[in-house]
Specification:
Helix 6 links the parallel strand 5 and strand 6. The N and C termini lie far apart (46 Å). By secondary structure, this protein is an alpha/beta fold. Strands 4, 5, 6, 7, 8, 9, 10, 11 and 12 form a 9-stranded mixed sheet that branches. Strands 1-2-3 form a 3-stranded antiparallel sheet, with helices on both faces. It has 2 domains: 98 residues, Enolase-like, domain 1; 243 residues, Alpha-Beta Barrel (TIM Barrel). It has 12 helices and 14 strands. Helices cover 35% and strands 15% of the residues. The longest helix is centred in the N-terminal third of the chain and has 22 residues.
């Protein structure tokens, strides 16, 4: 046992927030509390929880999780759960490193030795994707994901959907699979049409076909299409996930480990999904700590399907990428669509604290972009 001596956070480019927990014996764990576009809010929550949790037993991970959830009166939501995720992941890393084992050993042990992965192509305004898909193929990926559309009006011209179908066909012609991310930017009148148009070309899944607050619309859409429906990045706890499972309107759940309270809650949600025959495919366009945490849970989950990787994603600008901030970036090497399960202790990555400290100096908080339509109206991004 050892009490928490300090909790620090580091804002680092391109848009990540790392958390470091140290106990009184000098044992260290790293977590990731990245919440894209809301960094300062998460930092404020971490400031409050640092004052609260210094002096708690670092081994009592579940107690700290429950304290964060049940004693704050207001609970859940992206900010609180992202802050909790940073601390939770770091505590798991610290504990497993202290014991000299990978985190997955503390979660019951692995059920696989390697994990299927996919990478992004295109950007917020996708255009020709053939060249990018070929690059991904040369990197060892067999599957990719891309945005379905640019910004769309509530009711737009059906012709605005044609490019998406052609891009899917292009990737399929290269012998690859592609998930299509509607990104919550497509409203019901257009989403119905796009799902039907994509269906004959067999996308790997369609992601966030509607915003998650429209569960009735998602349920109706699920009954109209055979395309597997994926969502979950904007659900922040098992209680948020539950109605979607009960409604039978999601086929692939995509919880984000940095938005749902970390490893502890991801493991619980994975078990819930298994009971409903729903696949697990964690959302993770984030940094190496978040991805390593996903991998540790995926390794123990029978219903794990595929993992998102941020390698070369369009958000990673300025020279920092998934391979930054660690001393063993080779763990992210892809072969025939898979990465190997890391064998090292804790998260299985070795954080380069010197690089984290240096690049955190004067780091700017990432600001989420937005779309404005031709009439000056705000559109979903």
């Amino acid at each position: 046992m050892g009490k928490i001596a300090s909790i620090e956070y580091f804002r680092v480019p391109p848009r990540w927030l790392f958390v470091k927990v140290v106990d009184e014996a000098g044992n260290v764990g790293w977590g990731e509390a990245s919440l894209e576009g809301h960094t300062q809010a998460v930092e404020g929550c971490l400031d409050a929880w640092t004052e609260r949790y210094v002096g708690f037993e670092a081994d009592d991970i579940e107690h700290i999780w429950q304290m964060s959830w049940r004693t704050s009166f207001y609970r859940g939501g992206p900010v609180l759960m992202s802050a909790l995720a940073g601390i939770d992941i770091a505590l798991w890393d610290l504990k497993a490193r202290k014991l000299g084992v990978p985190i997955h050993q503390l979660l019951g042990g692995k059920v696989r030795d390697k994990l299927k992965v996919y990478a992004w192509i295109g950007g917020d305004r996708p255009s020709d994707v053939r060249e990018q898909a070929q690059v991904r193929k040369s990197q060892g990926f067999n599957s990719v994901k891309m945005n379905g559309t640019e910004d769309l009006g509530w009711l737009d011209s059906p012709s605005a959907l044609n490019d998406c179908v052609e891009r899917l066909k292009t990737v399929k012609d290269l012998g690859m699979d592609a998930g299509i991310d509607f990104h919550g930017r497509v409203h019901k009148p257009m989403a119905k049409q796009l799902a039907k148009a994509l269906e004959p070309h067999h996308p790997l899944f369609i992601e966030e076909p509607l915003l998650s607050e429209h569960i009735g619309g998602i349920k109706a859409l699920a009954q109209l299409t055979s395309c597997p429906i994926a969502l979950g990045e904007r659900l922040h706890s098992r209680w948020d996930v539950r109605p979607f499972l009960e409604a039978g309107c999601v086929d692939i759940l995509q919880p984000d480990i940095s938005h749902i309270g970390g490893i502890s809650e991801m493991k619980r949600i994975a078990g819930m999904c298994e009971a409903y025959d729903v696949a697990l495919a964690p959302h993770c366009p984030l940094g190496p700590i978040a991805l390593a945490a996903c991998v540790q849970v995926n390794a123990t989950s029978a219903n794990f399907a595929i993992q998102e990787m941020s390698l070369g994603i369009h958000y990673n600008v300025g020279g920092q990428d998934l391979t930054s901030y660690t001393k063993n970036p080779e763990v992210w090497n892809v072969s025939d669509g898979y990465i190997d399960l890391m064998k090292g202790p804790g998260l299985g990555i070795e954080v380069d604290e010197d690089q984290v400290s240096e690049l955190s100096k004067n780091a700017k908080a990432w600001v989420a972009p937005g779309f404005i339509g031709p009439g000056g109206e705000i559109r979903e991004w």
